[in-house]
Amino acid sequence: MFLPSPWRADFPAIAALQRQHQTYLDNAATTQKPQALLDALSHYYSHGAANVHRAQHLPGALATQAFERTREKVAGWLNAASTDEIIFTHGATSALNLLAYGLEARFHPGDEIVISALEHHANLLPWQQLARRRNLKLVVLPINPEGVIDVEAALQLIGPRTRLVALSQLSNVLGSWQPLEPLLAHARAQGALSVIDGAQGVVHGRHDVQQLGCDFYVFSSHKLYGPDGVGVLYGRHQALNLLQHWQFGGEMVQLADYQEATFRPAPLGFEAGTPPIAGVIGLGASLDYLASLDPSAVDEHEATLHRLLLRGLNDREGVRVLGAPELALASFVIEDVHSADLAHLLTEQGIAVRAGHHCAMPLLKSLGLAGAVRVSLALYNDSDDLQRFFEALDKSLDLLR
Ligand SMILES: Cc1ncc(COP(=O)(O)O)c(C=O)c1O
């Protein structure tokens, strides 16, 4: 039975991709954009671009207003206590690097930073490199066969030496929600700061950072149907006060002289240089678009597609799905078939999926794999997309076996 997406026509690139005989199923990497975003970008650039927070003139005031309106929308989206808790960065990766540098002075040799075994490189490498610079111990929480952090082990490993816990909300490889609640409560009790990598989690449902009880939460606009080049760092007010400034220049300064300077607090103090103005304004338009959808209809649509995806994969001989994906995606390997060969044949048939280590090399290595193929869904996908994928998969397997 055909399952259409009621929102497909809102994304002009899907029809364009179809004309190029492309079926886009790499949404965990980045998403296509709604017309509402294209309109907002076109409006901004065709009505007068201007820099923000500095010019007195009308175009500057309008750009600043639109830019700051997005900060309000993001604060509302995450239920932050204040717009001052929202810092714009260039992506989740740059937000996590900002944190690793901004918090560096708080760490002393022997302190521990805790991450999990399934982290994306963006939430591994900044902490790994910080640990190397400051002589810290990087503790890695184990995961169970379902791809979920082992809570019992984690509660033992997060202890009095733990200064910071940095965890993914939803795995980009295994598609599993992580048990943040008990882990964050325990980290808090130990006096550790917490960082949540919401790059995948933010795309599915709405998450309340105050309810989550984290100190910091990061995500990238481009995975949330927004423009690329924009990221968000949410920080609880008291936690942001712990950050040292790390990039210098532009409107982040309060007073500057040749030999010394003072800097603004968050958020502007952490937005050095000209920010991605159009991108931030565009993110606001994407959030407005998403807010106009019925969230339960989106959830239901994505859940149905995901069930079809898993059923199709499990029905095929020799397919091993990694972990126990709960939504949005499935990564898999096939007995006696090299993932890169399979990906090549899928690409030749116009199926856009991701193959490789998914920026989580240590995780793939721990599973004994060099790579896997990942299919990831978005709200504009329909069951025909999956049917085309499975037809291409069967054809590829006939050739490879
Ligand atoms: C879980 C997770 N964290 C972080 C990132 C990094 O995001 P970006 O490349 O937009 O900075 C990604 C992107 O794939 C991701 O999936």
Describe the secondary-structure layout.
Layout (H helix, E strand, L loop, with lengths): L11 H8 L3 E2 L10 H13 L10 H21 L7 E4 L2 H11 L9 E5 L8 H10 L2 E5 L9 H7 L4 E7 L11 H10 L3 E5 L11 H4 L3 E5 L10 E5 L1 H4 L12 E4 L4 E3 L13 H15 L3 H20 L4 E3 L7 E6 L4 H10 L2 E2 L1 E3 L4 H6 L5 E5 L6 H18 L1
Parallel strand pairs: 1-13, 3-4, 3-5, 5-6, 6-7
Antiparallel strand pairs: 2-8, 7-8, 9-10, 11-12, 12-15, 14-15
Helix pairs in contact: 2-10, 3-10, 12-14
Report what the structure shows:
This protein has 401 residues and is α/β, with parallel strands linked by helices. It folds into two domains: 8-25 and 295-400, Alpha-Beta Complex (Aspartate Aminotransferase, domain 1); 38-291, 3-Layer(aba) Sandwich (Aspartate Aminotransferase, domain 2), CATH 3.40.640.10. Helix content is 39%, strand content 16%. The protein has 14 helices and 15 strands. The protein has helices at 12-19, 35-47, 58-78, 92-102, 125-134, 151-157, 180-189, 209-212, 237-240, 277-291, 295-314, 339-348, 361-366, 383-400; strands spanning 23-24, 86-89, 112-116, 137-141, 162-168, 193-197, 216-220, 231-235, 253-256, 261-263, 319-321, 329-334, 351-352, 354-356, 372-376. The strands form four sheets. It has a seven-stranded mixed beta sheet with strand order 2-8-7-6-5-3-4, with helices on both faces. Helix 7 (180-189) links the parallel strand 5 and strand 6. Helix 3 packs across helix 10. The mean pLDDT is 97. It binds pyridoxal-5'-phosphate.
